[in-house]
Amino acid sequence: MRPKILVVDDERSIRMLLQAALKAYGYSVDSVASTHEAELKITLVVYSGIIVDFNMPTEDGLSFLRRLHQHTFNLPTIVMSGRDRHDVQQQAKDLPITAFLDKPFELTTLIQVVRETFGAAASM
């Protein structure tokens, strides 16, 4: 079974890019524009993991993850950010985040981090 990933990012272009790239590498992908939408999806679908943006308008990715972890949520998670990685890691030190992805990133870096975090998928 292919890993199923949820992408959470308020920027449509980033969501579409990640969805297309990950699908091309054999992953099953859903994408949403907000943490509220993500929370609804998580209650309906079983995911292998989540890729979430750090900086979003209504709720940042770390606040969202903290809320999820209060309810025994325990999926591999990649946090994307255009901010200083050290700063983001300091803010996230209480969370079991699997990996960080610095924006902007190359497609090869994305796929490498996704494979290390969620496992390999069969190519389409």
Poorly predicted residue ranges:
none
- The proportion of strand residues reads 15-25%
Return Rg in Å.
Answer: 13 Å
Number of strands: 5
CATH H-tier superfamily: Response regulator
Q: Helical proportion?
A: 40-55%
Describe this structure in words.
The chain has one domain (4-116): Response regulator (Rossmann fold, 3-Layer(aba) Sandwich). It contains five helices and five strands; from the N terminus they run E-H-E-H-E-H-E-H-E-H. It has helices at 12-24, 35-44, 61-69, 85-91, 107-118, and strands at residues 4-8, 28-32, 49-53, 77-81, 99-102. The protein has a five-stranded parallel beta sheet, sandwiched between helices. Strand 4 (77-81), helix 4 (85-91) and strand 5 form a beta-alpha-beta unit. The radius of gyration is 13 Å and the shape is globular.
Summarize the structure.
The chain is α/β, with parallel strands linked by helices. 41% of the residues lie in helices and 19% in strands. 29% of the residues are buried.
Write the layout of secondary structure elements.
Blueprint: E1 4-8, H1 12-24, E2 28-32, H2 35-44, E3 49-53, H3 61-69, E4 77-81, H4 85-91, E5 99-102, H5 107-118
Parallel strand pairs: 1-2, 1-3, 3-4, 4-5
